Fold this sequence. Notes:
The protein is α/β, with parallel strands linked by helices. It is built from 17 helices and twelve strands.
Amino acid sequence: MDINFIIQELERKHPGEVEYHQAVKEVLLSIADTYNQYPELIKAKIVERLIEPDRAIIFKVVWIDDKGDPQVNMGYRVQFNNAIGPYKGGIRFHATVNLSIMKFLGFEQTLKNALTSLPMGGAKGGSDFSPKGKSDAEIMRFCQAFILELWKHLGPDTDVPAGDIGVGAKEVGYMYGMYKKLTNRCTGTFTGKGLTFGGSLLRAEATGYGALYFVEEMLKRRGETIKDKTVAVSGFGNVAWGAVKKATELGAKVVTISGPDGCILDPEGISGDKIDYMLELRASGNDVVAPYAKKFASATFFPDKKPWDIKVDIAIPCATQNELNLEDAKKLIACNVTCVAEVSNMGCTTEAIDAFLENNINFAPGKAVNAGGVATSGLEMTQNAQHLAWTAQEVDLKLHQIMKNIHQLCEKYGANSDGTVNYVKGANIAGFIKVANAILGQGII
Ligand code: GLU
């Protein structure tokens, strides 16, 4: 495979879509050697077929704000690949959303969903609508307008969306409500739904819990446990909340969270009602963490700072793509970090990942570490199809096993000759092999 040529072609066809190019390049670099051992995949042009989405639906969303004025936003759904199962992936509402970001997320989702071992293809959707500072009524009207256009492309066996940045249970509820009204069917065609209308127990916690189960496996390989380790977390949304909750439950001490306004350092650890307060912060809709330091005397707020220059054992980025760059990586390395588990999708830049790997820091990529969220979405789909609801314990057991399996896949495909694991390689190859064989087996379509 001539990676340079493939990337050049991608850039020529889709100029300026930098995040999409970055995600594809990272994967191609790590799968190249394996791919070149399979002439049947090369002959069938599997890579060229996999890196282009099946389709991208782009639409305008017109809605009325509280003043009675119409507002116009963009809407997207990139149905990336359904070789393994129905398109599946979240919806993101954030001012930065554009086609490139939707495509990179859809591509990552395809490989991630393959890692879960559940029958789900990959997709991503969203809008440049920013929920920040919007009233509840405005958010509801926006969600309804968004679905008024998108509903015809969705379905339980076609495409099942969920939440992502800016889209939590409330927004999923508004979107699913409108979808149900238009189709007149209770098909559960959304995951992350409210518990009273088909949602799964533990879906809210799943991404963060799954990430910590994965970290436990990483540490176990080194003969360590997470108990008494110090942890830096970025972000303060649903995913960060689940990660802080599970890390604390397992005996670690989480000393940071962060938001677009800056970083909170709480040397006493974020536990108990401090964790619950994260939910309040998020629900306020202001997208800031500063109020945490006003409420809890043990904490300090550092405006415009990231949590990566603090001495911790483990770093867990839970905010957004490219949030951790080379400079941040160098700071963490200087602080003797030993494990970096990326929970945000493509949370670390390529240069940051290279720095971690060169310095023998245990680094695992988002598509492996954060797969517990979408895996539990898959479990929600199963419960909906069975017209049953499992207990939290049942869901947790399955989630835990799925994360252990993903770790095993990384070990299998990412084994280094010195006995360590290259998790980037392991996750990319394991996901790719599965999707590649599924594409190959279904002929040229
Ligand atoms: N947005 C989440 C992710 O990046 C969850 C997707 C889902 O549950 O479908 O995996």
